[in-house]
Amino acid sequence: MSTGKYKPQYPRIAQLKTAENLRDHLAKEGIILNFDEELKTGENSPFTKAHTTRAGNKIGNAFCILPMEGWDGTTDGKPTELTRRRWKNFAISGAKLLWGCEAVAVQPDGRANPNQLMINDKNLRDFEALYQMVEREHQNAFGNSEDLLTGLQLTHSGRLCKPESKTKMAPKILYSHPVLNKKFGLVEDYPLMTDGEISELIDSYVAAAVRAQKTGYKFVDIKHCHGYLGHEFLSAYEREGRYGKSIENRTRFIREIVSGIRTEAPGLEIGVRMSIFDWVPFKQGEDGKGIPAAESPYPFAFGGNESGIGENLNESFEFLKELEKLDIELLCTTAGSPYYNPHIQRPALFPPSDGYMPPEDPLHGVARQIEAVAKVKKAFPNFYTVGSAYSYLQEWLPSVAQNVLESGKADSIGLGRMVLSYPELPADVLAGEPMKRGKICRTFSDCTTAPRNGMISGCFPLDPFYKKMEIHETLKTIKAS
Ligand SMILES: Cc1cc2nc3c(=O)[nH]c(=O)nc-3n(C[C@H](O)[C@H](O)[C@H](O)COP(=O)(O)O)c2cc1C
Ligand code: SF4
Fold first, then answer.
1. Residue to mutate, 119, 331, 417, ligand 1, most ligand atoms under 8 Å from C-beta
2. Residue ranges making up the domain that contains 452
3. Does residue 383 fall inside a structural domain?
4. pLDDT one-digit tens code per residue, 164-223
5. Residue 398 is assigned to a structural domain of this protein
6. Of 168, 307, 339, 447, which residue has the fewest beta carbons closer than 10 angstroms?
């Protein structure tokens, strides 16, 4: 298995074989991460806990599949066989909440890549067929799909748009950002989106939500994370006009979208995936490890403190209060951005090709998100709160996740990379089966490195379907260099 020449500096999880090993390592690193030594089974397992949302949608257990794109749609935004295969794997995973499946653009200029899915009138039948396939596959595997809740994640990629070509960026930005403008090659006075363009975009979100409802999806996620446009509104402290400066203005985008959806698509549930905190962008230091790319004070990290490398959830809580007022119940948490601080967003032992060596044991990243989500859950018990960034836990994932659920620190365990390599993990845990070691995601980051280099995403090291592809060889060469 190729992992390039890089030698990780932190112990691999597979080496932490016993509870004592894990406890000792956490103590040495100063990481607070609770876990259960014994996994409960049957009805006693907190993973089996069902929930009915205030809107009346049923979620049959406490596993959620996080949205994951494959960079594998057609150039006109339709799903391909590869997209269908990934969604089918989500459907038969055993999880009862499919959070949006993947980012779907609401208008052409907002695509993150020329192969991103896009929901429009021409693609309606394709989105309907995807939804029906998910329902059918889930029914075939588990007998019924009444308690399976499937949504669609709606997005505009803002600063990270690349709608036409895999190499040419066409950013849409809300304010000039001293670090990110430079990182993505934008001059300081690069034009900003106008308030008029934002109003048109809001109409596109509403139209996309109407289409999602028509094609079967039970909720839409209005994505506010990872440095994409929805997230950028929250840190538009210096923007003039209706969408900048005050928290009231910075949350106007979500309010206007929700108001439009409530009118045009009554009955459609709305969720929000948000980066509950952000940090300063990171870059490679001299020894290859990540270091902050800007000095403190760094004022642009929403939910972060001014050091740029810590949290202050006060403003995140203000945003959540707005969501509560909008009667939103479904909340999927995440943090940071995979583009400028990936070790915060998706802790990994092996960095993606455009990243840096982890500046900390990745378990810090896992624990940081769990702790922040626990604070959110405590302050806002009425959200149905999904946690993220569990994949790095590998063999210890069920033990930590059970503890999180039992101690009320989240309502649902979101799974990302782990289900690319090991789709049936939730079903195995629910059935009390031991984990299949050969399928456990080892955070090699190929699923991120491949799209960063213009290729489709997938688990090339561990999924036999991707392993045998020719581009796997290209990927190995890129990694080795
Ligand atoms: C290949 C890939 C594609 C992703 N695509 C999306 C996406 O479309 N929307 C989104 O909100 N997050 C996306 N993510 C982030 C994941 O949903 C998740 O937050 C992240 O992988 C951390 O969870 P994990 O530790 O279980 O992997 C993606 C992650 C990966 C690895
Ligand atoms: S490529 Fe596979 S093993 Fe590597 S991070 Fe992605 S899912 Fe995990």
1. 417
2. 13-480
3. yes
4. 998 899 999 999 999 999 999 999 999 999 999 999 999 999 999 999 999 999 999 999
5. yes
6. 168
